[in-house]
Amino acid sequence: MPEAISPQSSNPTPTEEIKNPNVKERLLSLDAFRGIIMVTLVCGGFGLRSAARGHLKTDPDSGFWQLVNYHSSHTQWSGCSVWDIIMPCFMFMVGMGMAYSSTRRSQEGQSFRDLLKHAIKRSLILIVLGFILDDLARGYIYVSLSNVLIQMGLGYTFLFLISLRPFKSQVKIACALLILTWAAFELYPGAGIDFDSPDLSEEKRAWATEHLKGIRGPWHEGANLSTPINKFLVDWVPEGAFKNGIKVHVKYGPHSYIQFVTAIVTMLFGLWSGLLMKSKRSKKEKLKLLLISGCALMAVGAFLDVTGLCPIIKKLWSPSFTLYVGGISVLILASLFWVIDIMRFKWWVYPFACMGMNSLLMYCLEMLHFGSYIRQTLKLYFSGNLFSLYGLIESPNSAISSATIIAAVFLLISVWLYRQKIFIKI
Questions:
Q1: What is the rounded CA–CA span in Å between residue 2 and residue 129?
Q2: I need a labelling partner for 211 at 20 to 30 A (CA). Which of 310, 328, 375, 423 fits?
Q3: CB within 8 A of 388, min separation 6: which ones?
Q4: Alpha-carbon span 86 to 221, nearest angstrom
Q5: Can you tell me the distance from the alpha carbon of 357 to that of 350, in angstroms, rounded to the nearest whole number?
């Protein structure tokens, strides 16, 4: 996570800090980007998923609510919904943050050894914090490596080491990671589900028939390279309830535990975008390069998916998914850069930038179900009508109003923390 800044005693806004030469350099677009993604996460996509499912109970054929439900949920396997880009955006922003924090540390005279120690320390803290948050959220020891903080931590030190290489070498490494990952999945022996196998349950066969038909074997859920790797990585962990009261649950799941390998490329896209933003190119040239790069990445990812060479699968962080969501992340940055830095449309940015500056704390609160605590507390003092639209407490739309209020509370907390100069950073 990028380093937070210390505001001046007069509590200037994030917008003013960008103009202040005495304050460490920040990119307002990055803080706004991080804040927007974070607020979307903490309020569960503004309640659209719950609202859609509520409407579909009474009108299951509604094309509009089916579309909303799809894009406010993770895809079952292949494809890419709006909700699927949340984690890649965080990975992308980690890379952008490194473009600023590592440069600043180098300018402060820190040696390679100091920078490497800091990167390793940050990696370890992210991994440990990811495990702790998972355990606290569930009330028992939960062994899984799919948590976003854990995946960030696993890839962060490698990202740092790659960032020291010349740009052309970084591009070659990124291509090698994607190609070798694709080849490893393709060459894994015994991949693919046998739809006619008598050992396949009727439920699994029905699911596979619906979601895996047309997808080649190396990319089938539960029958690809990540399956034995996941099992190997957590097989040594004892599972169950023990005499001392400790409960341990091991999750194998469909998520690849080695997805950080291709996620490093997502972070590299962010690193390169950050270096572009720091360059002396004109704003119009920066915007042009972002738009071209974003569209090109999306096009290549979509091509690999449509041709069947490499399906877009978020749970595996497949190479095509890496390219596709990398392009989306670049285009989101380009949009914010155009709105905030070129068009100077900044009046709405302040609360999101404040949230972006404390994104780690906000994520921790979200993992610990702070949003649910807010909802229950407000219901206690204001009754359920607070979350109801049109006075209908049971209306599916109440999920939207509830989530919006929770988002507002998180934003207010972020603004207060900013004005109190409280920043949680690693």
A1: 17
A2: 328
A3: 395, 398, 401
A4: 21
A5: 11
